[in-house]
Amino acid sequence: MITARAAASFDPVGRSVATARSFVRDTLQGWGFADIVDDAVVLTSELVTNAVVHAGTSADVLCLRSDDGVRIEVADRYPEREIPLQATAVNMGSPDREGGRGLQLCAALAGRWGVEYTPTHKQVWFQLILPERPVGTRTAGPSLPADLLPLADGRVRVAVVQIDRAGAINAWNEDAEELFGYAAEHVTGKPLTDLAAWPHTPGTSTGIVEALQLSRWEGSYGIRGANGRVTPVYASHLRVRDTGGEPSTVCLLVRDHERAVLQTPLRVNATDTTTSSEGQASDPFEVFIGSPAPDDLDGLLQRTVERARDMLDGDSAFLLLATDDETELEVRASTGLPSARQRFARVPVEAGPGRYGSARMPAVHEDLTVVPGAVPLLGGTGMRSVVTVPLKVEGRLTGSLGVAAESPSRYSNEEALRLQFAADRIALAVESARLGELERLRRGSLSFLVEASDLLAGTLDRDQTLALMAQMTVPTLATWCAVYTIADQASDPYLSYVLHEDEERIDGLKALLSKIAPPDPVPTPGARVWSAPAEAAHEAALRTSMRSLGLGESPPVSSGIGTTLATASAVGGETVVLPLVARNRVIGMLTLGKPSDEHFRQEILELAEDLSRRAALALDNARLYSERMAISQSLQRSLLPPELPHIEGVEVEVIYRAAGEGNEVGGDFYDLFPIRDGAYGFAIGDVCGTGPEAAAVTGLARHALRLLAREGYGGPAVLERLNSAILDEGARSRFLTLLYGELWPQEDGSALLKVVCAGHPLPLRLRQDGTVEPAAEPQPLLGVMEDLELYEQTVTLDPGDVLLCVTDGVTERREGTRMLGDDGLTDVLTTCTGLTAGAVAARIMRAVERFASDAPSDDMAILAMRVPGLHKD
């Protein structure tokens, strides 16, 4: 049954968290639920922080009192966030991290908790059960044997001293007289500070004057007695006021070794205890930080800011580490600040007026509104007072630690000394962990760049290079990546490739980037921030949200608020652009992005810059290779006949295979062309080598053959004149093997051939009975000797006969020490009786390819001609 309720709403600003804590604390104390106040305040603080800071919405807090406890509900207006279900096993992460701890703390501290959704709200609730204790009992301990009870004198004396508003003693009981030797009339009216021997540890303690002003205080100090000796005491101070409203402080004091009489049991974790099992004090570093792993830099820093905030009762705290050149400070941990101030945001060391401009000295700012910009990190957060101290190792600035509050004049030099003492205790550990992290990053960066270089060097395909660039950056360096390319100096940047670590976000990201102007192709090295994607995403999300609420035009069928908000979240963080510069020209831009409220760390940007230089060169090499291959392929096509003529009564088939990757022009060629009515010329040749020089001789040979043959020269005359033309090329000449012939189909179904074989593999004739014989005799090749005396040989192909002409790439096909050779080719040809010219050529090529497992190392050309004979009706 609900017996009381209290509700309040809080605006989406940082100061609302502290206000919500005060609201819950005052409400529960008013209801008499002091035992559960601390747990309730912690849980409320986390949930309200999630709402007003991280989600950026207002928060509604409702406290409900019942007979057995209290239920607190925190509602925000951000229902899209994914919440783990209690029924499923979900890893909620480490409790030491800054974000995402609200539900984990609910599971740890609350008796019951849950999450409820409505179309416009998300509500997280938790219920705290009152401890089942007898009335009037606040804490209790177990029964112990007598030898385990704390030691005390025969009679325990509790001195009761009351201090007025001015700090003077106005009450002194008999136990106080016995403990310290002063009669009441001798000390009444004197300040307690005259008697107190306060432990003056620089920067670690609160003075006696401040302690007397606190509402409650416990601790140890000394009282100087009448005999001049100091008696160590344990004290419990309570600030009260009389019926007239006059405040005073009641001090209960016992001997220090009898502190168990007054000491309140502390609710601390095992890792936070300040004494070991032997009863000896722990290292102050462990007292302040706890015990994160020595190499866990993030855990160490996050624990530091949280303890610093608690130590000075602040609303927020932050820790920045210096970059290698100490020109900037990089946010590495924070608590109580908006998420936009989260990790890896960078602040110049010498920025702004005031003492924060030199982060190398402690500074206390009583009111930041008086000196705007003194601490750039806190701009727009609602923080008014701040204390910052440097982290130094051997006199060198390594970072800065700060604690801030929403009220002005909160901190003084006393708090600065305390914070500086804590910073001095952790500086060396932080620097050691930071150097260890940097070393790991450098080793990882070196391995990453070596692997990236190998991958980029392993391809000369432009599209594959673009894909590799994006895949190497996502998710290693960034959450998403876009690559823009520039064809030439007169062209605009073109969006060539987009990748996101979540494949479902790629289409939305590509559509968003296509609608905004690309970044300017600035050749200046280094990363520069590009805000256009985040701005466009936020505008699109806002328009879609307004349309969904009926405040704008109806959204298209293909769009949805979920997709738009997801895209906005995906690109809402920091976006940087790195130029792709190769051979002193900007050929594109590499764009890297983070999701909402995330920043790039400096080491990642430096690594991305190294990668962009390698990627730019690889991309330009791929472009040059593609251009060269296109030119080579075009030239290769120009050296071969566009199509073969149809010859009545003769079947002709040609197969051509160029070796290599396609970027070198081959030296093999073939041709078949009409000379005059009823006569056709054919040729198959092989120029020594490949490349432009071989292509020049190939083009010369093919066109010279056609020209000379059509001028009426016979075979020997054509080749002798071609030999002279090749020799006239001088140093650019190449020797050439060539089989040239002329073909006349006959009326009886046969074909007459006149053939000249100048150094080329001999043509083979396959008869119908399966016999194979050379169809010509070998003669000198071209391009070597000036005076050639060539002759032609006449061959008649009967119906069913096949003439096979090949280049040496066919006969010299090798597998280890074996070579196909003329005999192997003859053996294959004998199995082709009765096949068409196309089938003969295909069988020869298949046999050549199967002869060896390796790819061919030389060009291959096959020309097969068959006389089918006359068809009878």
TrEMBL record:
<protein>
    <recommendedName>
        <fullName>PAS domain-containing protein</fullName>
    </recommendedName>
</protein>
<dbReference type="InterPro" id="IPR036457">
    <property type="entry name" value="PPM-type-like_dom_sf"/>
</dbReference>
<dbReference type="Pfam" id="PF07228">
    <property type="entry name" value="SpoIIE"/>
</dbReference>
<dbReference type="Pfam" id="PF00989">
    <property type="entry name" value="PAS"/>
</dbReference>
<dbReference type="InterPro" id="IPR029016">
    <property type="entry name" value="GAF-like_dom_sf"/>
</dbReference>
<dbReference type="InterPro" id="IPR003018">
    <property type="entry name" value="GAF"/>
</dbReference>
<dbReference type="Pfam" id="PF13185">
    <property type="entry name" value="GAF_2"/>
</dbReference>
<dbReference type="InterPro" id="IPR036890">
    <property type="entry name" value="HATPase_C_sf"/>
</dbReference>
<feature type="domain" description="PAS">
    <location>
        <begin position="160"/>
        <end position="190"/>
    </location>
</feature>
<dbReference type="InterPro" id="IPR013767">
    <property type="entry name" value="PAS_fold"/>
</dbReference>
<dbReference type="GO" id="GO:0016791">
    <property type="term" value="F:phosphatase activity"/>
</dbReference>
<dbReference type="GO" id="GO:0006355">
    <property type="term" value="P:regulation of DNA-templated transcription"/>
</dbReference>
<dbReference type="InterPro" id="IPR035965">
    <property type="entry name" value="PAS-like_dom_sf"/>
</dbReference>
<dbReference type="InterPro" id="IPR001932">
    <property type="entry name" value="PPM-type_phosphatase-like_dom"/>
</dbReference>
<dbReference type="InterPro" id="IPR003594">
    <property type="entry name" value="HATPase_dom"/>
</dbReference>
<keyword id="KW-0378">Hydrolase</keyword>
<dbReference type="Pfam" id="PF13492">
    <property type="entry name" value="GAF_3"/>
</dbReference>
<dbReference type="InterPro" id="IPR052016">
    <property type="entry name" value="Bact_Sigma-Reg"/>
</dbReference>
<dbReference type="Pfam" id="PF13581">
    <property type="entry name" value="HATPase_c_2"/>
</dbReference>
<dbReference type="InterPro" id="IPR000014">
    <property type="entry name" value="PAS"/>
</dbReference>
